[in-house]
Write a structure and sequence with these properties.
CATH superfamily of the largest domain: Type I PLP-dependent aspartate aminotransferase-like (Major domain)
Number of helices: 11
CATH architecture of the largest domain: 3-Layer(aba) Sandwich
Shape: globular
Helix content: 25-40%
Number of domains: 2
Bound molecules: 4'-deoxy-4'-aminopyridoxal-5'-phosphate
CATH topology of the largest domain: Aspartate Aminotransferase, domain 2
CATH class of the largest domain: Alpha Beta
Largest sheet: 7 strands, mixed
């Protein structure tokens, strides 16, 4: 009998929680109105749902509803911050310097590369071997024209957690905007925007059991009013910050997804930690030379993520030899060549090791039995050698 397929790629995307789907469905059907239509009840119902979602998100993040702006996802939110800052200062003929890191998600990295071609100066701070950015290294790079520091909260490949509290505090003291890509932080670790003075934060619905194609940009309005040019211009939705008819079902979904973490984030994190630890221990028993990339379990590391380099006994292209597992590979085929992930490269993992590296990430619906089945897939890999 063949083992069932096991999904261990929750860092990549999550299934929509049934409660989230249930909350969304009426907004595809009877409550289909446009929230901008303020002349009838269809519009009011939709608008009310959007405001409710804004409050659900603000409650989870401990910020104000008016600081939540809906986007199409973290990619858009990240692009918006970077282009927004650029446009704002380009208009004033001011040269912009941005501080970031080489292990950001491509939606930050490639946007920064694009902006470099437009004359923006970017310093990419090298992380340590565990993927963590040092506050001192950032401090040293600050210049009089540094307008933005953009550093992710949690790395999507190796799970490392940056010291966002200290980094955002430093930015605040130096009067520099601080943006964090919080896509792998929200719903995975505690994110409290009253405690942590980040000015801008991005995330996506589909990483937190919400739908795809909807995300958030948190833009601080209190204590420091963030000035950021709009990204999309048109009908003036979202207070003129982001035009376009709102994706009401998606917004209801991301709101409900955030509500589901309310009061049970600790429980969720404990579940992730238990399963990641079990998976790691069992794989370590099978492959004693297994190497964990990023910080140790339980230390400045996402509770759901394992980035593992397997010993060469398994051969290269390990992911293709595990068809029964939904996992993510440390290298990918692009334009006919095998390319290592920029994150693994950024922390010093060799090209050859990256080919033997997998990211395994557990989630809300992963069960202990799933870990056992996953381990059996690895056992058969070992036996097939
Ligand atoms: N940032 C991080 C850290 C991510 O993990 C992702 C998704 N892989 C994104 C940004 C982009 O999110 P989306 O594709 O939903 O726009």
């Amino acid at each position: 009998m063949t083992s069932p397929m096991i999904y261990l790629d929750y860092n990549s995307s999550t299934p929509v929680d049934p409660k989230v789907l249930e909350a969304m469905l009426p907004y595809f059907k009877e409550n289909f109105g446009n929230p901008s239509s303020q002349g009838h009840s269809w519009g009011w119902t939709a608008d009310h749902a959007v405001q409710k979602a804004r409050l659900q998100i603000a409650t989870l993040l401990n910020c104000e509803s008016r600081e939540i702006i809906f986007t199409s996802g973290a990619t858009e939110s990240n692009n918006w911050v970077l282009f927004g800052i650029f446009h704002q200062f380009a208009r004033l003929n001011e040269k912009v310097h941005i501080i970031s890191s080489p292990i950001e998600h491509n939606s930050v990295l490639n946007t920064l590369k694009y902006l470099e071609n437009l004359g923006v100066e970017v310093d990419f701070i090298k992380p340590n071997s565990q993927g963590i950015i040092s506050v001192d290294a950032v401090r040293e790079k600050i210049k009089p024209n540094t307008k933005l520091i953009s550093l992710m909260w949690v790395n999507n490949e190796i799970g490392s957690i940056n010291p966002i509290q200290e980094l955002s505090q430093l930015s605040r003291e130096r009067k520099i905007y601080f943006h964090t890509d919080g896509t792998q932080a929200v719903g995975k670790i505690s994110v409290d925007l009253q405690q942590t003075p980040v000015d801008l934060l991005s995330f996506s619905g589909h990483k937190i059991y919400g739908p795809k194609g909807v995300g958030v940009l948190f833009k601080r309005k209190k204590n420091l009013l963030v000035q950021l040019d709009p990204f999309l211009v048109g009908g003036g939705q979202e207070n003129g910050d982001r035009s376009g008819t709102l994706n009401v079902p998606g917004i209801v979904g991301i709101g409900e997804a955030c509500k589901l973490f309310q009061g049970r984030l600790t429980e969720e994190i404990t579940h992730y930690e238990k399963l990641s630890t079990l998976l790691y221990q069992q794989l370590k028993n099978l492959f004693p030379e297994l190497k964990l990339n990023g910080p140790e379990l339980g230390k400045q590391r996402s509770p759901m993520n394992l980035s593992l380099t397997f010993p060469s006994v398994t051969g290269t292209d390990i992911a293709s030899r595990l068809p029964g597992l939904g996992v993510s590979s440390g290298s990918a085929c692009s334009t006919g060549k095998i390319a290592s992930s920029h994150v693994l490269k950024g922390i010093g993992v060799s090209h050859e090791e990256a080919a033997r590296t997998l990211r395994l990430s557990v989630g809300r619906f992963t069960k202990v039995e799933d870990i056992e089945v996953a381990v059996s897939h690895f056992k058969s890999l070992l036996n097939s050698k």
